[in-house]
Amino acid sequence: MSDTEIQDPIAELITNYNELNSSQIDQLPSEPSPLEFMRYVSKNTPFVVRGAALTWKATQTWTVPYLKSLLGETTQVNVAVTPSGNADSPYSLEQNGTTSLVFVKPHEEYQPFGEFLDFLTSSNSPTKEVRYAQTQNDNLRNEYLPLFSHVERTIPFARIALDCDPDAINMWIGTSHSTTALHKDNYENIYVQISGQKHFVLLPPICQPCVNEQMLEPAHYVRLPCEGAIPVPDSTDLGLVMEPHSPYVPFATWDPDSPMLNETEYSCLARPMKVTLNPGDMLYLPAMWYHKVSQSCKEGEVCVAVNYWYDMEFTGPLYPLTTFVRSVFNKEREIESDIEDEDGNDE
Amino acid sequence: MSDTEIQDPIAELITNYNELNSSQIDQLPSEPSPLEFMRYVSKNTPFVVRGAALTWKATQTWTVPYLKSLLGETTQVNVAVTPSGNADSPYSLEQNGTTSLVFVKPHEEYQPFGEFLDFLTSSNSPTKEVRYAQTQNDNLRNEYLPLFSHVERTIPFARIALDCDPDAINMWIGTSHSTTALHKDNYENIYVQISGQKHFVLLPPICQPCVNEQMLEPAHYVRLPCEGAIPVPDSTDLGLVMEPHSPYVPFATWDPDSPMLNETEYSCLARPMKVTLNPGDMLYLPAMWYHKVSQSCKEGEVCVAVNYWYDMEFTGPLYPLTTFVRSVFNKEREIESDIEDEDGNDE
Ligand SMILES: O=C(O)CCC(=O)C(=O)O
Ligand SMILES: O=C(O)CCC(=O)C(=O)O
């Protein structure tokens, strides 16, 4: 090696980013103009507007009895069922004495809306499972259509700035038992809290080298009894089914709330941005930001949120540069594992 | 090495960028609104508005005699003097049988404005040197102040979008003999052609690995005779003085118009964007884009342009990611040169 010190470009990237950007979220006094919003889109930086949706009919009226009366006790809704609130997340599977990390999806089933809400709000449910209405398929303009007129049809500043209507408007109904694992979406996201609280932990796209993305074998929960299902220690009602014919899923395995587990050499450089949303608060979550979301609400109540996904811009340098960070990190990883392999061979 | 093929992240970055972005410049039918402009800033993508400044008094009145009458024949202006129109550019210096690339700056001197214009417009000048008024120090609001009221004081859409006034407004007066070498600036640039033509060759910031940036020893031209000056083959009037106590200058050494000289392994992937500005045309040149600029005008006339530099945004991911591309490229280079050194030692 030469005298010149070969620096670590990835560590430098994260450090430079941290020096130029705050890890405290910007709080705007009111909804931004389209131009002010576009400045945030341009710098791919989140903000929150406290109380922006306090005047929405949804925020003012969506109690559990009212939701039931409007949507109907018996309307069937799609519900994600898991033993411990871990839908779409990495899961340590112990089998035949070995542990492997798999990507576990919820058991999905249709339930009468009334029964679903009763389950969420009763403290002594018959089963110990966790339920969460969390389909991200524009459900507010489909399954939950009778409720749609209680929220904005689009977020005006975002529609004007981005010059498009939302691709999807999603309803989220759950309790403090559900957590959404750290992941990212290729959408500009306006997230509005209606009832209860949501706790976001956010990381910018340049933190890809911190989140320890792995290719995970997919699996999903099923209701027992089910032939071939793998029992899971946390449940007598649910088991796991592997999906040997589905492609592996690239997924973050580091959790900023348990920073010493599954970390990479770069995880310690991450400066997570934390924000809690109260009813009426509106969050701008820029495209490609990693987010982990947990929630809390009072006994007998539910956490309800509505979010608007707008198409992100793929032209310009940001999207290819984000891919570049991943490729540089993966290449470094491959080289390191090759060196380890070679060292192994020597022994 | 393992079976997994280790791809080249830099080649992938440039290829991905090329697939998502056109190398033809967008032509807008009229000046954008602040919001439309911000969308271009956000995607760091150039555009041109043909004829946007045709109504400016400058475009309509700035002939050579009129300029003289307004600024005064005898007003002193700063002029860059070079043997062949190569101010602020890499230069191959042959000395003691070896060739080295240095960074050469012009000889700067003050000349009466009338004399400067007479020199530019006369076909048989007494000396063969090239002159160019090109100080980038807000000269239009200083040296050329009497002319300032003939152009817009700020570009309204840019002022509103970027929420600031221009940091500098620069006047450029030259002829087809001057070329500005490929370089980049940390400014959002609105460039307006007043008379003659400018020919831009543009490369996005992600093309850093294509431009073969080198650390060059600085030098500047001086009028001869001058003790210690190095003669240059292209001139009997000018010589070169090295600056041994000044820091080396990082500078692009690849010229997209001579693609086989000084190229890197990535230069062939660059897709230069070319645009010629005619009088009245307005170019948005986004921050950090590489640009090479040549010019042409009729015999007896001059090329005049005015540009507005607005501060760029350093928050967000783009600036640190641009540094990251440079660091990854430099590290790859260092590793390659280390391997070559080691191979050399083995022989
Ligand atoms: O609210 C949640 O549980 C997750 C929200 C989310 O992932 C999103 O809005 O993209
Ligand atoms: O007009 C020229 O010669 C160069 C212009 C330039 O480099 C700039 O506007 O930054």
From TrEMBL, chains A, B:
<dbReference type="Pfam" id="PF13621">
    <property type="entry name" value="Cupin_8"/>
</dbReference>
<feature type="domain" description="JmjC">
    <location>
        <begin position="143"/>
        <end position="325"/>
    </location>
</feature>
<dbReference type="InterPro" id="IPR003347">
    <property type="entry name" value="JmjC_dom"/>
</dbReference>
<protein>
    <submittedName>
        <fullName>JmjC domain-containing protein 7</fullName>
    </submittedName>
</protein>
<dbReference type="InterPro" id="IPR014710">
    <property type="entry name" value="RmlC-like_jellyroll"/>
</dbReference>
<dbReference type="InterPro" id="IPR041667">
    <property type="entry name" value="Cupin_8"/>
</dbReference>
